[in-house]
């Protein structure tokens, strides 16, 4: 049997909690020691002593405890697990923690919290308790005259100090090793991805040219599901369908289908199709790609554009019924002069027209579009949403409408009474004395067809709720009178 090489002091430690109390005390001692010896001991000797003490101390732990060291870098490369833990652990901070880091940075409205090396963080996962501790390693000083300046350094006399390479230690009972490795760590990583997705800035991408390049800008559309003037039942059905799609990745793999979903938004102009697209993007935290088929002149270019999109994105084709090129490309009379069309889209362009030199590249067909939706070309990425919009569903080719291409057809109709209540609440501070006016509007909406956009415009015309509602009632009466004549 192997002899115990530990000092008796360490073998008498009775519990894991006692061990961490000692560890915290040691961490405090190391900080004091580092400060006190800053000017008394040469740098190299100081770093050597500190590293040896840390290594010596970290070797001692209860026999049934496992320690996982998660350094900030791995062989000189970024360790994603470190940054995942850095984002995950603040969600586990409780009010009784004594030592924390706090800060405020630009683009954040709330205070930010982080743990420091003095505070142990406890977490529980499926009945297993784990313990986290931040470990800070001493930085290295380099000469300012170095030919390779270190990024993120600060001045210190004639020397600079490299940012500290921190790490985390994750401790748990050895009997839970498999569950920690197979479930808990993936849980930390997935939580990190969700946090990062929630904090990211959405982008909208528009076509830059026919070669498959996109130009991007921030997508700051204010619409959300909370603000949409949509019937509550329809709103719920859309959200439920999206949620069901997101959690069915394994099912799509099992049945051999690309992980994508198609929606057709149809209805009169002004019924909120663009706002619904923005709300879906904001709900999913997906980027938006605005695909203008009027600028696509070949199947090859369309395929290249699709390959240029990212996973977790929404590909939008608006007013599909107006894209006669898609529906009639098989008709020779519908062929256009590609160079002339390209010049029309990009005035003043003097260069070559890539992709238009050969006749066989001048064909953009319905089959090419269908191939990108659910054919062989549709496997270019995962977790995609296709959204098509139209004012006239009956004009859309039936081949596009079938399930697998447009899986859910969402009819956005004229304004209904339940949707009006949402609209009125968004635009006006409705008070009880306006109840009778609201009832009048609802009665009129049962008799006339008017879009949410038109009603919203009338609600914007006056800041006084009563004046705005009176004006809307007068407008609706005029429509009713015209319909009766």
From TrEMBL:
Residues in AAA+ ATPase domain copies: 259-416
Cofactor(s) named in the record: Mg(2+)
Gene Ontology annotations of biological process type: response to stress
Superkingdom in the source lineage: Eukaryota
Pfam families for the chain: AAA, AAA_assoc, AAA_lid_At3g28540
This protein's record includes keyword Hydrolase: yes
Catalytic activity line of the entry: ATP + H2O = ADP + phosphate + H(+)
Signal peptide stretch: none
GO MF, any single term: ATP hydrolysis activity
UniProt-annotated stretches for the region Disordered: 143-167
SMART domains: AAA
InterPro entries in UniProt: AAA+_ATPase, AAA_N_dom, At3g28540-like_C, ATPase_AAA_core, Mitochondrial_chaperone_BCS1, P-loop_NTPase
Similarity comment: Belongs to the AAA ATPase family. BCS1 subfamily.
Protein name listed in UniProt: AAA+ ATPase domain-containing protein
Species per Swiss-Prot/TrEMBL record: Vicia faba
Lineage: Eukaryota, Viridiplantae, Streptophyta, Embryophyta, Tracheophyta
């Amino acid at each position: 049997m192997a002899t115990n090489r530990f000092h008796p002091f360490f073998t008498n430690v009775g519990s894991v909690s006692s061990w961490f109390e000692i560890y915290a005390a040691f961490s405090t001692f190391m900080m004091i020691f580092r400060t006190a010896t800053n000017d008394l001991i040469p740098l190299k000797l100081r770093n050597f002593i500190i590293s040896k003490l840390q290594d010596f101390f970290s070797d001692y732990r209860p026999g049934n405890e496992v320690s996982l060291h998660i350094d900030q870098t791995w062989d000189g490369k970024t360790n994603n697990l470190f940054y995942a833990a850095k984002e995950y652990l603040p969600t586990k901070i409780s009010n009784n923690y004594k030592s924390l880091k706090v800060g405020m940075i630009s683009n954040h409205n709330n205070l930010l919290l982080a743990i420091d090396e003095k505070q142990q963080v406890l977490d529980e996962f499926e009945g297993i308790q784990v313990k986290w501790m931040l470990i800070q390693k001493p930085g290295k000083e380099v000469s300012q005259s170095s030919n390779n300046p270190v990024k993120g350094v600060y001045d210190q006399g004639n020397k600079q100090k490299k940012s500290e390479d921190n790490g985390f230690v994750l401790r748990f009972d050895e009997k839970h090793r498999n569950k920690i490795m197979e479930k808990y760590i993936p849980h930390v990583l997935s939580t990190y991805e969700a946090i990062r997705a929630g904090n990211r800035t959405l982008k909208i991408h528009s076509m830059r040219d026919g070669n498959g390049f996109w130009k991007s800008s921030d997508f700051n559309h204010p619409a959300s599901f909370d603000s949409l003037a949509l019937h509550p039942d329809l709103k719920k059905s859309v959200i439920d369908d999206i949620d069901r799609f997101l959690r069915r990745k394994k099912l799509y793999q099992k049945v051999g289908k690309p992980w994508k979903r198609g929606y057709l938004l149809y209805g009169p102009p002004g019924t909120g199709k663009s706002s619904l697209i923005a709300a879906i993007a904001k709900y999913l935290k997906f980027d938006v790609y605005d695909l203008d088929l009027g600028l696509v002149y070949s199947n090859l270019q369309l395929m290249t554009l699709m390959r240029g999109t990212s996973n977790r994105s929404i590909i939008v084709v608006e007013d599909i019924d107006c894209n006669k090129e898609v529906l009639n490309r098989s008709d020779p009379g519908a062929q256009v002069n590609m160079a002339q069309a390209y010049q029309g889209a990009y005035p003043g362009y003097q260069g070559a027209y890539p992709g238009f030199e050969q006749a066989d590249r001048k064909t953009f067909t319905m089959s090419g579009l269908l191939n990108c939706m659910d054919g062989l070309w549709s496997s270019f990425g995962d977790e995609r949403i296709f959204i098509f919009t139209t004012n006239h569903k009956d004009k859309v080719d039936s081949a596009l409408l079938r399930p697998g291409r447009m899986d859910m057809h969402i009819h956005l109709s004229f304004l209904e009474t339940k949707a009006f209540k949402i609209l009125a609440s968004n635009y006006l501070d409705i008070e009880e004395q306006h109840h009778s006016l609201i009832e009048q509007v609802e009665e009129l909406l049962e008799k006339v067809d008017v879009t949410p956009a038109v009603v919203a415009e009338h609600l914007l015309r006056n800041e006084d709720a009563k004046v705005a509602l009176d004006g809307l009632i007068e407008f609706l009466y005029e429509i009713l009178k015209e319909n009766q004549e």
